[in-house]
Fold these 2 entries.
Entry 1:
Amino acid sequence: MSSRGDRGGRGRGGRGGRGGRGSDRGGRGGFRGSDRGGRGGFRGNDRGGRGGRGGRGGRGGRGGRGGRGGFSGGAQVIKPEYNFQADYESKVSDENSLELIKKLPPLVSEKGALDIELRKAYGSQGTKTNVGTNHVSYSVANLKFWQYHVTFPAEIDAKRKVKNDLLEILLTKAPFSGLKNTISHNGSDALFSTEPIPLDDKTEKKVRFEFSRDEFLGIVPNSILKGGAPRGKPSKDKADAPETAAQAQYVVYCTVEFIHTLDMKELQNYVSLKDSNKIDPSPYIVALNVSLSYQITRAPNAITTGKNRFFFVEHPEKCQSFQKGLFIASGYFASILPTFNNVLVSIRPVAGAFIKSHNPDGTAMNVAQLVADYYGEPLDRLSPDAVLREKSFFKNIRIQRTYLGSKSKPKAIFDISKEFDANNYKFEVDGKVTTVAEYFNARYNIKIKHPELPLVHLGGSNYLPMEACTIVPGQEFTGEVTDVRGVLAFTTHRPHVIAGLTQKEGVEKIVDASHDKRMGKKLIVVPSRVINAPNILYKNRTISYAEKPADGKSEKKKGSWDLTNVEFYRPVKGKIDLLVVCVSPRGRGLRPHEQDAVEDAVNEYVAECGRHGITLVLKTIEEFEFTFPDRCAAEYTQFMKEFKGKIGYVLNIMPHLDKTLYAAVKKTLDVNLGIPNQCTLINKFTKQRFGKFDLQMYALMGMKASIKLGGVNHILDEKSSAVVNQKGLPALILGADVSHPTGPNSADGVSVASVVGSIDEYYNTFPGSIRLQKGREEVIGDMAQMVFERVAAYHRSVSKFPQHVIFYRDGVSYGQFDIILKEEVPQVKEALKQVAKKYNIKNYKPKLTFLVIVKRHSTRFFPLEKNAKDAKGKLVAVQAQDNVMPGSIIDKGVTSVKFYDFYLQSQQALQGTAIPGHYFVLYDEYKFQPDVIQSLTYNLCNLFSRATKSVRVVPPAYYADLLCERGTCYIHGAQPKRGETQLEAATKLYGRGIHPDVQHTMVYI
């Protein structure tokens, strides 16, 4: 092991006795100390997790002991146990819409516009079985809504919470009060009533309603009331600012206007394909969802958190404590879903984290008690400075000033004061100076026990002691959930548990809360088909799954295999010089025993890669130390410059998860220097079990290295890939996605769009293009140019141009199909025209098939039997690990009314309930039959290049998602200068994009 004293390194000197252990692959070179900067951390996905799946948690004290959960600064979460048995409808929902679709009149579109594909057939291949769903029927017979639009003044219109509270007051006024049980509102600007509302004014379409001062004071904030108190420095002479003259004259009002009548008979005709009026179903679905949601929220103890999520928390003090200051509760998602000849309600269990509002004895919790719970310390052991360090947790929590009586309205905490406590904040009362503590004792008979705690700032000059503010119940926590293990422990349940919860408890609670007698009580059943898994080829082995009856083991192998004695299909060419970089903060480098562990682990990693066909030659193990996180990018770039052109691959060993360092490393190597690389965590990389390193993890790391270095890991057999490899010319398969900024300033952030594309007949390598665009824009603005780049990359590899293009678009919601078809599909077609023009190709008209995948949906499937008979009458497994079998296709019963869609569950569910992908064929010039496009999509799911499993999302879409995440790394830390937008700052930081030396590889994998 050599030291690097000449570079200002930490020069460990020789360690003796280890130098001769070098590998015959080219020698290790040992550690080389360095004081070069860089740290931060590693976080493969800085877009944030999607959260727990919404399994179902406990109901107060009912949960059983269960398994152990996570622990992260709060209480340990215990996994609840349930013993519900779901009831299913006896009739299978398998109605056929094809004949009615054929009779539909042609769609009337704008000139040159594209029409969305209609269903042309149903799939037929595979073993037929039936599966349960998390849907119940919903009758819309004899149901009609009158819709009204509510308009507020401009200064109020942007405040949804204010509008919601004012709408509640509006419903207490005439003529609404007499129809209160028939009216629902969306919390913003719409009323829906099952009876007409008699608006008296015959001369005006918009009828004005004013709110009294007692009604709106405390709801409309001072920042809106003209001349209201600013949220700035307090006036130190008063605890409660008096009302200004401007506030006293301010009038709050709204106008109500009738829009139209929504007769649900028209919706029933639409789903039955008997719609002669060609309605847009969206307003009807909105009306049903608003009505259902609003009626549920009126139930006692019901909490709604938006997006159709409902929690029924009768005793908050009995709910499980979660991370600091929170409890975790179970609830349900419920939403209307139209399908052919039926209207359904989709119901599934969800979980939510809430601010604690009650003490263990059931009494209301004040802010001081919440502080004690948050820190896990008695108040007399907490210093004011300690409270202030994490005051951001308490901002915007709504509190109630119960000492003011019933007229007091909830207020949000603006801040925790840095300057004032109940002893030092003084003001005059009746000509005498008093403190907050003295004032509350004299005025309200409230003795402040901890006057040293910082005051709660409600804005303006309103400062209150923590002990005088009680927490408003039912506030969902909107910050970062750090106790991921706890969430998984609480929410992860197998399908039979989810089905039982949904049907036995969810349906019952929603029906009871909404008093809705139109909802069915049993879960519907739909037909499913389980198609065969493809054969996967390695250089020296073929992975096959033989269909057979379930035995508890064999069915787990469908879509799951390992790399034991396997060599990648096309190994990396030649020998690759490897540099290992151990990252640490300055002065906190590896200790001698850690160096030993790293050296041994690296040797094992190199050897394991060699067993799969990657010949790595270890040149040296370096230590890189950074000074400060915000300097690590520049320091790491300087550190790595000397290795440019000398090594072929960099393995970065990170100290812990941290997206700042991860972004610095990836920006340096992918963008600035163009060196293939990957990252790992030191605790995982050097971990041993029973004296052995994790060779399986090293093999999976080797899969990443192989792909980045130009190898091909595994491919489909000839039969499985025949549809995309015709006449010796492979199809071009593309994937696209857009990632959006998150957090409080996301509206001003930057979205990252990507397109990836195949380059050969193996479909294992998908290099890609990245573009930055304005935050929250879902449509990909530069789609045409990125597709052009992917076609050019295909041509560089194949030396021909594709005749068939298959496109998988990720990140699309159900309401965005029209805009994708209108704006993105034409861009793809335009790119192909530009290819013909650029390369002077006559009559070049490749056929385009464009699909979207919806990942965030509420549909789940539950197996009803373990085995079923295949086409030959042989009994085979249709269930694996309590879930429906990988390869399950559902295209009836819960699919769209008339469009060309299907659900595919392609993955094994290692835990919990699997979530299927929902695929829509939006545009199809190739005219794929359902069996063909369904099997192709499933086969591709078995080709994810860095895994030995079939994945949930078709790989081109998955890769595009990963590339968007990597693009987010490249612009991490972009700070706009004065007069500069966030997009301009990010574009400047990104520079010219991925380095030319690696831009044709999968740098993001």
Entry 2:
Amino acid sequence: MKAMYDAYEPLPILEKFPLQIETITAYDGNLVVGTKQGHLLMYSINSDSTSRMKINLLRSNKNFSRKPITQIAVVPEHQILISLSDQMISIHDLTVFNFPLLSTLQETKGAVAFDLDIKHNISLTGEAFVTVRLVVAVRRKLQFYYWKARQFHSFEKDLSLNDTPKSLLWCGEAVVVGLRYDYWLVQLTGEQKELFATGRSQQPLMTKLSDNCLAVERDEKTIFIDTDGKTVCNNLEWKEQPSALIYDEPYIIAIVSKSVQVQSQNPILHIQTIDIEKPKFLTYAVTNKNKKQVFVASATHIWSLCPVPISIQIPQLLAAKEFTFALKLADLWDECTKSKENMKQHIEKLHAFHFFCQHDFVGAMKLFYELNTDILFVIGLYPDLVPEEYRARVSYPHPVPVLPEDQLKMRQRLTKESSNQTSTLSPSVKTVPQKLQIIDTTLLKCYLKTNDSLVVPLLRMPDSRVSDEEGEKVLRQAQKYQELVLLLRIRGYHSRALEFLLRHAKKEDSPLYGHKPTVQYLQKLGPDNMKHIFEYGSWVLKSFPEDGLKIFIGDDDPSEVESLPRTRVLGFIKKTQKSLAIPYLSKAKRREVREKLQKFLKVSEHYTAATILVHFPHNDLFEERAILLGRLGQHQVALKLYIDTLLDVYLILLKLLLRTSRNTSPCSSSHGSPLVSSIAKKEDGREINYEVVIFDILKNYWQRIDLAQALKSLPDDMNIQNLKSYILRSLIHLTTMQKDNQIVRGLSQVILHQAKSELSSTQMQKILLSDKTVCCVHFI
């Protein structure tokens, strides 16, 4: 088993001890040694400026016991020492030079082992106090005591066992007992639970990791259990069965054969093997900084295991790519908060980079996101995605691996998540617009490789920051000519876009072949770009007069070209293709007439829609027919007409969904849901990206669309996050309406009750009428 690095440095503090060491314990910089000859000695241990250990004998008692001292423990809070010698428990005073005897627990005659449970508590008045409980194994019984008034008192009846214990350890409100053949969990209530066998050696060995976790030895394995005796994590394995075991967070230290071995529990790592001559005992003292000072002893020597500074251990762990354990060490680092956090961020960043190198992109991206990593660093992991002007500014701890082709799909996920973070700007990206440009350009490259249907929505976004130069370059390389024209048009490079269309109009294998792409482009330019319209519309007008005329009169919907100055257009047509002047004027005139007709149908109340509808042609005037259908309340038929024939989503939105009838209530909200579900496809069934349109409808006209019906009608692949605003507003509106109705209902019931009371009161009044009764109102 190969060691990773040195976590401890063994320093001898007591050599060639003239007596035979039988047991040791330590506390507050003091080391207490019990010998086979019955001597008890206490040493103070300090480290000097050279990190060497100095040991001084404070006190000793040669007549402490007539028999070997087999076990000792100290309770510094109460200044007492508990010893096991001659099979009996004794309590001694630590404040006096020769450890005088305070008391002997006569009931413990025949004791083989004991353990203390020391707890620090806070009273209701805020005062700190320490409770001490003692469990003693006496033959085949357990005895329980508590400390009070300078002596131990029994607080539980003795519990009988199947065999004589060899070791025992407190575990919450229970005791784990190591017998010859097995381990048992014994509750203070008397309930006993068998855990598992001790193994071949029949030498039980235990140590406490925390109040809720123990390490129990079984042959060459260390098993970790909780207070219920259940295994809590993976087992730890040793070369041979340990003879002693302690825990110094985060390390498990064991005496194995002729050496001391150091391992970690989580993750399981073999850290170090320390060669020491005949080690036998392990103990530790808790220092003032709540750290442990570990001691190792043989029969005649004692060493201190001085921890190597964590600042030295962490780089060795990073070199071995043990990032999880390095983070655990960083948490234990006695350094200022800022330095500790910087070290942890450095470790996690290296960990994320390691995930990426191992093609664990989800793990890498999760860490990068949590660390708020600079966006350029993340995108730079894919060198072909980074704009050339930024590529040289990014450096990495190791060479970035080349990804196989089947991993390219992870790019979209990576950049999508990275674009959502709000990281601080690095020196390589000095402004927010630069950062956004890198993100959007990277998204464009990812979409081109993974899902090119998302390219157009990205370019159409109002706040899209795709780099002009880089975007044009990658779109040309991917032969996405339509998307390239869209980018140039959005960025206002009309001359370049129209020149590009002109060149490709003559290439039969191009998706832009023919004159129609040029016509569609020119129709969208508007009156501010008349120069471009006249310059690049002339060749279409000459070669394809009928389609060229559509540049100025539009297709089925003339709204795109309505704002063009007619006088200038007419002059250009006369100059370029004189024969089209009359058709242009007639089309313009017809458009004016239709506008008047539509206005009349919408506003006037002096006609019967059913009578007029009979005279409308079935192959023309579809929009006017839809208006009449709306007046008749046939909204479903009108919707179908708009969607199947007019194919204009915004026209549907503005002229059908929001239309109200003079004679009826506004267009029912139940008609908004078919609209939402129907606009996801065109007449020919091809999928089109109308998510933005649907979101606009739901956002701006939510009061006219039924929530339940709309959610049922929406496509399954729509992003529910984008519907959050609509759903919240609809629910608030419905809740408000319900509360208003409840208030109105309550008020109505009150008014009804008052009316009934007045009626009942009036009916109870007695009125006498006779021939002499005179009406006070009508009498004259």
